Amino acid sequence: MFLLSNCTECGDCLSKCVYIEIDGEEAKKEFRNLIDGKPSPVISQCVSCMACDEICLEKANPFSLIVKRQEEQNEIDRFGKAKQMMEDAYTIPSKIEKRGEGGPVIGLCIYTGTPDLFEGVLFENATFFMGGEYFCGIGFYHIGAESPVKEKARAIVEGVTRVGAKDVVFYHDDCYTFFKVTAPEFGLEVPFRPISWPEFLYRRMKDLKGRIRPIHRKVAYQRPCASRYTPEKDHYVDEIFHLIGAEKPSRSYEGVTALCCGGAVVPRDWELADRIKHQNLHDASEAGAEIMVTLCPMCFASLKKRAAQHNLKILPLSQLCRVALEEVKI
Ligand code: SF4
Ligand code: SF4
Q1: 50 alpha carbon to ligand 2 midpoint, in Å?
Q2: What is the pTM of this model?
Q3: Any idea which ligand is nearest the CA of 142?
């Protein structure tokens, strides 16, 4: 939610955006236009990376204002195919798979992952739930709409609550962010503790410390857009790296300046999306990384094909952990 009372109209959210070319004074003017609900090129140029919510030191949540204006301007009509895919996701059949007693309860969103992704000691006795009943819909923000997320929010919270766990691990960073930040912002009570994927993996790897064989590799981390809202969990990624002997090389695009994986940009501008992907992978490779590790399944899918062109192996974070547990070879 945009917090007008926090906003000093400094324009930093726009002037520091890496996807929109706009200088300081122009940025202030365009942000004022957004506040006033006047036409602004920002409405169509914003690629929905969500970075400006983290750039804004006043915590005014400027991206929420941009999405609001995009929705008012029916930007979503530009993304017919993506809109249909998002709507269809709510109808994906839901299921719960229980492997044993006492293991973690893990929400897979609408993903089932690659066949071996959730195998091995990390997932012993886990219960998985997945499908449209649990789909948070945060991806609608990437196509200029907030209201579908809000309309379905109560049903989604109730759906996950029915799974019946006190602690729920979320594989997709969007889902973790939805239950940790978005649903409470909508005034909904979340009666279970959402646990991020990095926290879950870190705690499991710590329990399994005696089985870890340090990997001694340079690994770049692809930080997903939803982490702009939940940066408090980032330290778990660093702690996993420390546990498994991975070195994070210093990159130009890191933390607040992290580049988007390009996935959200594809429906808007395919060429721009491709440029962002190459810029991102090139930066990781130049920094000396041999592997790029992803937290979000969308980032993995988006960067997978092009990683090899930059001599990078790309792995989901859980697979990197499984490499250190000698369950997976690279
Ligand atoms: S939202 Fe934040 S960064 Fe943007 S103009 Fe307001 S205070 Fe500045
Ligand atoms: S969401 Fe990303 S692209 Fe859009 S204005 Fe904010 S920083 Fe720029």
Answers
A1: 6
A2: 0.95
A3: 2
